[in-house]
Amino acid sequence: MNASFEEKSVWIHLVCVLGTFILYCLVAWSMLSSGVDTLMPFVGVFLSSVVLLVILLVAGHLLAAVTGRIEKPDERDRLIVWRSESNSAWMLVVGIFAAITAMLFSLSNVWVAHILILSLYLSQTMQYLFQIRYYRRGV
Amino acid sequence: MKTPKPGTQSTITNSIRTLRHQHNEMTQQDLADRIGVSRQTVNAIEAAKYAPSLEVAFRIARVFDKAIEEVFQFHAP
Predict the structure, then answer these.
(1) Is B64 in contact with B30 (CB distance < 8 Å)?
(2) For a Cys-Cys bond, which of A15, A82, B6, B37 suits A74, CB 3.0-4.6 Å?
(3) B37–A76: do the CB atoms touch at under 8 Å?
(4) Among B47, B49, B56, whose Cβ lies nearest the Cβ of A75?
(5) In sequence order, which residues have a C-beta less than 8 Å from that of residue A59 and are 6 or more positions away?
(6) pLDDT digits over B11-69, tens only?
(7) How far apart are CA A60 and CA A116, in angstroms?
(8) A77: how many CB neighbours lie within 10 A of its CB?
(9) A109-139: per-residue pLDDT in tens?
């Protein structure tokens, strides 16, 4: 792959975040289907997915470091991060407003929490996709 | 000289590839190491996919011992 370490890092983040989020969704969905309607059981699952994410990220970056050249982020990398964050932040804002709206309609804490988690993951995923687009097509 | 693709916003072109070849076939990695960016960033600048900061532009011009206008050309629409 003819990519800088920073671009490889974005790919690693994208794959790991998507993978752990899908895994979390599968487990959470099965819990909701079986009638779990309190927040605490989901906290353990969420924390487990975060720990798994960290392990996968460390392993992915170690692999990238061993197989390629490590370089510090330069001005282009920083510009790409700024623009991508700017373009994807609205998703998190939408999620926060959706969660507030859900609270106004007295939805359970489980749904409010999952609206926030979903918007967080979508915002992050969108940021990584923007970053890859800028790396590939120019910024 | 690299020219921007039709329909793109970029109006800054450069002669870096030509200058590299005139300087003992300098590689992108050599140039990147001398100006403090990654090889991929040099490649993006050459391909007009990224307009560098003034500081990096001056660093590139200094490597080739040229004025900045001889390395980068601005085309007003």
Answers:
(1) no
(2) B37
(3) yes
(4) B56
(5) none
(6) 889 999 999 999 999 999 999 999 999 999 999 999 999 999 999 999 999 999 999 99
(7) 27
(8) 25
(9) 999 999 999 999 999 999 999 999 999 998 8
What is the least distance, in Å, from the CA of A78 to any CA of chain B? 12
Q: CB-based contacts of A98: which residues, under 8 Å, 6+ apart?
A: A115, A119
ipTM field: 0.82
- Helix (H) or strand (E) segment spanning residue B59: helix B54-63
Cα–Cα distance measured from residue B38 to residue B31, given in angstroms and rounded to the nearest whole number: 9
In chain B, which among 29-48 make CB contacts under 8 A with chain A?
Answer: 36-41, 44, 47-48
d(CA A14, CA A132): 10
Reduced 3-state DSSP string for A18-53: HHHHHHHHHHHHHHHHCCCCCCHHHHHHHHHHHHHH
| Mean pLDDT score, A5-28 | 96
Cross-chain residue pair A4–B39, CB shorter than 8 Å? yes
- Segment A77-106 shows an average pLDDT of 96
Burial of A132 per CB tally in 10 Å (0-12, 13-18, 19+): middle
In this complex, the residue of B10, B44, B47 whose CB is nearest that of residue A76 is: B44
Domains of chain B and CATH, by start = 12-74 (1.10.260.40)
Q: Give the nearest chain B residue to A6 (CA atoms).
A: B38
Q: B53 at the A interface (CB within 8 A)? A: yes
Contact between chains at A3 and B39 (C-beta distance less than 8 A): no
